[in-house]
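Narrative of activities, Objective 1.

The group set out to show that a structural description can be obtained from nothing but a protein's sequence at a throughput compatible with the screening campaign. Below is one input-output pair from the validation batch, recorded exactly as produced.
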Amino acid sequence: MSQIEVEGLVKTYRIAEREPGMLGAVRGVFRRRWRTVEALKGLSFSLRQGELLGFIGPNGAGKSTTIKILSGILRPSAGKVLVNGYVPFDNRIRHVGGIGVVFGQRSQLW
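Output recorded for this entry:
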């Protein structure tokens, strides 16, 4: 049985865009333009107890977004996530009692 199971994980964000300059700022108040950013596109993997996984990649690759979904901080736009038999964002209180997550730079881990 898998300890972590991720299938077809998708996370999209809707970001407001504005035109440059003061006129663009004023227009943005009355009529916003939005664009959609896909942080995760169909991510799938599973880990059994005792296996290790490391995330490496450039900025914007979805590493932090994946960890935040696995820890229950974010809710995915689509897909299935199970960690120790729990859906992390639905059973957050039960879930966080059995995990540990540290965010930050290498120097902050000391």
